[in-house]
Task: inverse folding
């Protein structure tokens, strides 16, 4: 589903990603872990071209993102992105947040978009909040609306950048529960997270990123209980 | 007191023209400002340079000079170009009377000036919206312009209402400069009446009060509008 070859990304002088190669299969759930500043967000943002790779190739669902002939707006519809700080549109209700892109980008009619929006809000357990504005929602509820909003474009892949890091602890569970549902339904997911419990339980594979490179990857039980690399061990001993 | 009661109705006619010129100029200025502001934020270097050049010129020179430039300068330029075309190639002048009607000149100058200030207001308003809003919209497959239209500008508009109100008030006072080319707005009406009656204190204090009445009324209106939007505000 996702094919990354020799991905490099620099911000001016600073080389943040230094040659990432990885393949993510359809339906796979991959958790990306690593120290702050290691390039996790940058990697994720390259996967939907919020950052333009300096070099390398990214292919998602058979379409090369790095090919200059590719229409950025079209390939972005293949990936849904969930941000740490939600970024719901504050001037729109929960339902309108979900409906906006399907109507404007996919040209769905109002009634089609509305029934799609309502079914997605139901999926994330927020039917009763459909007509509420984001400022009246808790962080956990906002993040669930943001997930519904991303799903509304029917993406092939969902990208999550620390989706629970900005939440009060009591709200983390409700967001992770929605993500687990998605994983169970077979969604291909790339999740940058510090939630090791989630990674252990849901991930098919864990990637440990340090200093812009993949240091180690494998099934969660291997990475967490028996890491091969010293740097992985050092990192895990700090956070577990 | 009698003088004041006598001149006020006459001055009010001038105040009417002041309001018409201000409202028209700020309305046209909003369109120019939106274009200039978006040009300054554009990824295209040519648009950016044009937007910046326009905004810098009209904010960096006195409105009075801009008024003279439009009213005297442009007809002067047209005449010179036509004379030169006549002399060099024998082309008959296309524009027989290059003079602009005075009210048109007034509105043109004030609109161009207002557009430059409003351009900066728009730019600041758009830039005050956090970057994540644009990224969230783009990540859903919206184009840059769709994201602007449906996500960024609606949020920016709410934030720019107070500075836009200030611009209106500033322009309302600055239209007094139009008296220099003889537009019979409020200040010019004051000059004319004073030449007739010679009652400088009564006349100028009445003029001042009429300006104050207009600016205060307008700033109350903006406050009320702002308050209404804030109760319905979602960010
Ligand atoms: N737009 C940018 N311009 C310049 N430098 C940037 C930019 N975005 C990220 N960086 C730098 O790139 C490096 C990697 O950033 P990135 O956000 O990918 O790290 P991260 O692994 O997600 O860290 P964290 O766990 O703190 O979120 C950091 O040093 C950061 O300062
Ligand atoms: Mg990050």
Result:
């Amino acid at each position: 589903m996702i094919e990354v070859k020799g991905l490099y990304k620099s911000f001016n002088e600073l080389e943040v990603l230094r040659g990432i190669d990885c393949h993510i299969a359809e339906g796979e759930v991959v958790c990306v872990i690593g120290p702050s500043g290691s390039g996790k967000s940058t990697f994720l943002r390259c996967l939907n071209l919020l950052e333009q790779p300096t070099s390398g190739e990214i292919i998602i669902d058979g379409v090369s993102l790095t090919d200059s002939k590719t229409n950025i707006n079209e390939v972005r519809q293949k990936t849904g992105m969930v941000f740490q700080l939600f970024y719901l549109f504050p001037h729109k209700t929960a339902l309108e947040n979900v409906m906006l892109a399907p109507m404007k980008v996919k040209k769905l009619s109002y009634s089609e978009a509305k029934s799609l929006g309502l079914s997605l809000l139901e999926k994330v357990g927020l039917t009763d909040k459909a007509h509420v504005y984001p400022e009246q929602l808790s962080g956990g509820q906002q993040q669930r609306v943001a997930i519904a909003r991303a799903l509304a474009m029917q993406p092939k892949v969902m990208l999550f950048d620390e989706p629970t890091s900005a939440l009060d602890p009591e709200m983390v569970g409700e967001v992770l529960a929605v993500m687990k549902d998605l994983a169970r339904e077979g969604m291909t997911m790339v999740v940058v997270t510090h939630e090791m419990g989630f990674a252990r339980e849901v991930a098919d594979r864990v990637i440990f990123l340090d200093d812009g490179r993949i240091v180690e990857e494998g099934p969660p039980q291997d990475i967490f209980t028996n890491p091969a690399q010293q740097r992985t061990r050092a990192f895990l001993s700090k956070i577990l | 007191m009698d003088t004041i009661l006598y001149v006020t109705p006459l001055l009010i006619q001038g105040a009417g023209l002041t309001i018409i010129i201000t409202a028209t100029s700020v309305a046209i200025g909003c369109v120019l400002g939106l274009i200039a502001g978006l040009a300054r934020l554009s990824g295209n270097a040519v648009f950016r340079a044009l937007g910046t050049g326009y905004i810098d010129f009209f904010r960096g020179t006195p409105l009075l000079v801009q008024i003279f430039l439009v009213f005297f300068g442009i007809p002067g330029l047209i005449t010179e170009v036509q004379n030169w075309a006549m002399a060099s190639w024998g082309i008959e002048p296309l524009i027989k009377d290059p003079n602009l009607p005075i009210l048109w000149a007034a509105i043109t100058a004030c609109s161009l000036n207002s557009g430059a200030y409003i351009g900066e207001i728009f730019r600041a308003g758009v830039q005050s919206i956090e970057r994540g809003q644009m990224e969230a919209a783009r990540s859903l497959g919206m184009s840059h312009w769709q994201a602007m239209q449906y996500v960024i500008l609606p949020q920016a508009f709410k934030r720019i209402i107070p500075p836009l109100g200030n611009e209106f008030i500033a322009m309302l006072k600055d239209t007094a400069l139009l008296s220099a080319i003889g537009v019979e707005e409020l200040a010019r009406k004051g000059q004319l009446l004073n030449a007739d009656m010679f009652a400088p204190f009564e006349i100028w204090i009445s003029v001042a009060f009429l300006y104050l009445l207009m600016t205060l009324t307008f700033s109350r209106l903006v406050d009320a509008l702002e308050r209404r939007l804030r109760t319905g505000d979602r960010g």
